[in-house]
Amino acid sequence: MTKNKNNRAIWGTRIKKKTSTLFQKVGSSINVDKRLYNEDIIGSIAHVEMLFKQKIISFKIKNKILYGLNKIKNEISNNKFEFNKKYEDIHMNIEKRLFQIIGEEAGFVHTGRSRNDQVITDFKIWIKSANKEINILLDKIIKNTLKLAEKNIYTIMPGFTHLKNAQAISFAHYLMAYIEMFDRDKNRFKNNLNSLNENPLGVAALTGTSFNIDRIYTTKKLGFKKPTNNSVDTVSDRDFVLDFLYSVSVCAMHLSRISEELIIWNSDAFNLISLSDKVVTGSSIMPQKKNPDLLEYLRGKTGTTYGYLFSMLTILKGLPLSYYKDLQEDKEIIFKSNDTLINCLEIFNEILKNFYPNKKKMLQLANLGYITSTDLADYLVINHSMSFRKAYQKTADIVNLAEKKKKNLNELTIDELKKIEPKLTKDVLKVFDLTNSINSKKSYGGTSFDNIKKMITKYKIKYD
Ligand code: ARG
Predict the structure, then answer these.
(1) Ligand 1 midpoint to CA 205 (Å)
(2) CA distance 278 to 351
(3) Which atom of ligand 1 is nearest to the CA of 90?
(4) I need a labelling partner for 165 at 20 to 30 A (CA). Which of 127, 300, 328, 410 fits?
């Protein structure tokens, strides 16, 4: 043990032997949680101001501590701070440096608080700003998707179920489906903000404190809505971490689904979209290749975000109340999850500007697979007063006939159609037109061009 008191761990009086090198290596989290330095200083400033207001520390001490904290903040942001693994984490590193700067009076900063409430306070403040950054990126993605949708209102493609042609839709309607998902993602992150908006500071180690602290004051100072209710729960609770990790996973899953679709559509078999050279990679052996690696990257990273969520769920399962070192894992998990999503959102935003629908191919494919069959069945119900089930069967007979004659539905003659349903007149032929088909889906939320235009306007107002 070194003689220099200032160089010792805070608990050096009680724990006499030097921490084993191995334990020091694994026990230290400074490389991960130094990312919380700004939040830690914000939390300490609010705490110290409250201690002064409550007459727990003097004006002079408060000012000295505030001076020290601000100096530390500058040092860290200018890369002039020496982080020391020996002091475990960001909280102890800052406290230790405070002693070096202002001397013994630094000892007052930790009055009535513990690292247990300190770390959650820092973490919640950090998540709030991470949330904002994700929101900004989601806004950008929504705006760029809207732009693409606006250009493609009349781009006709097959809508799929089971990856088989189902009914004709507008490509814009398809894109707008993803806007719904991204909009829900935004709400999910917003809801998290509401539920994490309770101030943990002041619950101390697990019981609260005997100092006459004012938690309402720090709540206001730190921008929380109310103080947490129960000190034991506060120290143990990481639900807000799970909420964030879940929201990241769902958002990544949406990116993964659209990536998967674009990969399929970009395949030579489908050829419904083209990717610009900016977002493809070549093969080391096959000279002709342009591979959609970036989209595959997004799909892969989604699996990784699920891993972070499951890590945290597993850590919490069976963990008794209140604080245990296990909980320290939460920072690394959330930082990685956040960074992965930010990266994926940025990449996806690039993809949005770098792919093009092959409109001709989309239309060609939409004309295959007897895609207007449901329109024909609907027509029979409306114009020949049949029950839907009866009309469904008549239409199936017509599809069988077309298949036998190796024709598309729109290639059948009126005489051929009449053989199956004598009541039919030439008027029926209009149902095989894809534009008519799309335009007839006027029910709220359907793919009619009018509906799409209204939805685009609605979202443009919301995201302007
Ligand atoms: N670095 C610790 C963490 O993130 C801070 C809390 C430490 N508390 C304790 N009782 N050891 O979990």
Answers:
(1) 10
(2) 9
(3) 1
(4) 300
pLDDT given at position 6: 65
Greater confidence (25 vs 366) lies with: 366
Q: For residue 325, which atom of ligand 1 is closest to its CA?
A: 12
Q: What is the SS3 assignment for 198?
A: strand
| Cα–Cα distance for residue pair 173/454, rounded to 1 Å | 11
Side chain identity at residue 301, one-letter code: K
The string of pLDDT tens digits covering residues 301-326 is 999 999 999 999 999 999 999 999 99
Per annotation, catalytic residue among 162, 210, 284, 443: 162
Tell me the pLDDT tens digit for each residue of 39-48.
Answer: 999 999 999 9
Q: How far is the C-alpha of 394 from the C-alpha of 327, rounded, in Å?
A: 64
Residue 371: how many other CB atoms lie within 10 Å: 23
User: Which of 162, 156, 153, 165 is closest to 433 using CA atoms?
Assistant: 156
**Is position 44 annotated as part of the catalytic site?**
no
Residue of the nearest CA to atom 12 in ligand 1? 328
Task: Report CA torsion sign: 307, 262, 164, 180.
Answer: positive
Within 347-452, strands assigned E span: 355-357
> Taken in order 297, 299, 305, 310, is the CA torsion positive or negative?
negative
For the chain, which domains are there? 3-111 (1.10.275.10), 117-151+181-212+241-356 (1.20.200.10), 366-462 (1.10.40.30)
Global pTM value: 0.93
Residues in contact with ligand 1 by the CB-under-6-Å rule are 29, 33, 89, 115-116, 119, 323, 327-328
The closest-lying atom of ligand 1 relative to the alpha carbon of residue 88 is 1
Average pLDDT on 175-204 reads 97
Specify the residue with its C-alpha closest to ligand 1, atom 10: 116
The answer to whether residues 234 and 118 touch, using CB atoms and an 8 Å cutoff, is no
Q: How confident is the model at residue 152 (pLDDT cuts 50, 70, 90)?
A: very high
pLDDT greater than 50 at residue 332: yes
pLDDT at 2: 40
Q: Is 254 a catalytic residue?
A: no
